[in-house]
Amino acid sequence: KNEVEQSPQNLTAQEGEFITINCSYSVGISALHWLQQHPGGGIVSLFMLSSGKKKHGRLIATINIQEKHSSLHITASHPRDSAVYICAVFGETSGSRLTFGEGTQLTVNP
Amino acid sequence: NAGVTQTPKFRILKIGQSMTLQCTQDMNHNYMYWYRQDPGMGLKLIYYSVGAGITDKGEVPNGYNVSRSTTEDFPLRLELAAPSQTSVYFCASSFTPTGQFFGPGTRLTVL
Fold first, then answer.
1. What backbone phi and psi angles, to 5 degrees, belong to B83?
2. Mean pLDDT, to the nearest integer, of A42-59?
3. What is the largest CA-CA distance in chain B?
4. Cα torsion at B106, B71, A91, A18 (round to 10°)?
5. Do residue B42 and residue A100 have CB atoms under 8 angstroms apart?
6. Span B74-101, mean pLDDT?
7. Which among B44, B48, B104 is the nearest to A96, CB-wise?
8. Fewer Cβ atoms within 10 Å of its own Cβ: the N or the C terminal residue of chain B?
9. SS (H, E, C) B14-52
C-alpha cells in the first residue's frame, strides 16, 4: 500500500463543474503539497499546507490532520485546468524528502 | 531570476553510454533534489542534497551519482545507461525542505 493515495486516478468534467480530488496518507506529516503538472510536463506548486484550508483564485485546498486526508477543489472548472494534480507529503520522520501520490489526470471539456 | 534550469531538454542514449544531466538554480537554495517520473507513475526521489558538499540517497539511487560542489549546481550522472533508466528527470530546489521549485525536466530515452 502506498503511503500517499489519490482518488480518482482519472477525472473528466464539463466546463463549469465543481471538481474534487482526494488525497489520503498513512504517515504522520509535517506538511502536504498540491502540485500541478501541465501537459507539457512542467510542475508547479499550488499549495503547501499543514492545517485548515487555503484558497487561491478558483482553487481551494483543505486538510484534516486527524483523518489523514486532504482535498483539492476547483470551482467553475475550465479546459485550461486540464492537468495532472499531484499530492505529496513531508513525513514527520522523512527528513527533507517528499513522498508523492501517483497523480490525478483531470480533463475538462468545453 | 531564471529559477531552476535543466539541460538538456531531451536526450537519446545507447545502452552503456554515460551522460550528465545538469541542474542549476539561482535562488541560493540549500536543498536540491533529483526525481524521476516513469509513465503513469509518481515521482521517485533519486538523490538529494541539503547543502554544498552534502548528498544523500533517495528511494532509487542505483545507476546514478551526484555531486554538489557549489550551492547553485547539482548534476546527475548516469553511468552505463540501461533501458530501465528511460524516464523524465526533474530537478527541484528549495530554501527549506518544504516549498520545492521544479525545473522543466529532461526526457531521456535509452535504446
1. -55, -30
2. 91
3. 38
4. -50
5. yes
6. 91
7. B48
8. N
9. CCCCCEEEEEEECCCCCEEEEEEECCCCCEEEEEEEEEC
Chain B residues touching chain A at CB-CB below 8 Å: 31, 33, 40-45, 48, 50, 58, 88, 90, 92, 97-102, 104-105, 107
Nearest Cα neighbor of A35 from B58, B41, B99 is B99
**Residues in chain A within 8 Å Cβ distance of B30:** none
Give the whole-angstrom CA distance, residue B5 versus residue B107. Answer: 14
Closest to B67 in 3D by CA, of B57, B54, B80:
B54
DSSP characters over A59-71: EEEEEETTTTEEE
pLDDT of A40 over the 80 cut? no
